[in-house]
Backbone:
């Protein structure tokens, strides 16, 4: 698919066919997620990959025991055969920037203009979303509130922060999110050429 077409077609899917994915598609999504940029090439992201009904059911039981997507009118989110959880690893960045070429040996977090560990995990997530579309699949990035439950369920080290989760699958017809009624902001309110 043309790159422009991938970008144009990317939208959050909230209903999935309960159909397993080809292994090549899963591997391509994971490989591309690892191709994103990272500050100082720290590569401080980890991906928890949950495939098939047993693993995805364990995920939903841990992070959404009240099945919030079902009560919001999107039960088909739970049918996604693949869930990827991208994690940011702050300490990896503090350690990387304490190396001689960076020199922040005090590992002081206030040196950071913004937390690049989250930025890099978001880049990886977008690559996963775009690759899903390019592979003929759909995907949803969504928030995960109970980090403790997720860590306990899958043995994730405390140092890693899940920035959300990505459900991937064959998209089925869904109800658009109410948020979309806001419409896309006009470009002249977003893009400030030359000055604000
Ligand atoms: C950081 C982030 C968190 C989001 N969390 C949720 C979520 O918890 N549930 C959900 O249904 N959509 C979630 N979304 C999807 C947004 O609602 C969606 O991207 C937005 O409405 C624009 O729609 P589109 O991505 O289909 O173009 C999230 C998106 C981002 C970037």
Residues:
């Amino acid at each position: 698919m043309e790159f422009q077409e991938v970008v144009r077609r990317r939208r959050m899917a909230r209903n999935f066919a309960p159909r397993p994915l080809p292994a090549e598609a899963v591997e391509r999504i994971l490989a591309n997620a690892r191709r994103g940029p990272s500050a100082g090439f720290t590569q401080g992201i980890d991906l928890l990959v949950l495939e098939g009904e047993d693993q995805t059911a364990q995920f939903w039981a841990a992070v959404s025991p009240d099945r919030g997507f079902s009560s919001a009118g999107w039960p088909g989110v739970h049918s996604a055969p693949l869930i990827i959880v991208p994690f940011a690893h702050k300490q990896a960045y503090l350690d990387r920037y304490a190396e001689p070429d960076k020199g922040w040996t005090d590992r002081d977090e206030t040196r950071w203009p913004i937390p690049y560990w989250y930025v890099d995990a978001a880049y990886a997530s977008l690559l996963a979303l775009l690759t899903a579309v390019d592979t003929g699949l759909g995907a949803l990035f969504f928030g995960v509130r109970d980090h403790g439950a997720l860590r306990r369920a899958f043995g994730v080290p405390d140092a890693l922060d899940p920035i959300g989760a990505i459900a991937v699958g064959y998209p089925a017809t869904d109800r658009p999110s109410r948020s979309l009624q806001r419409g896309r902001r006009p470009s002249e309110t977003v893009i400030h050429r030359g000055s604000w």
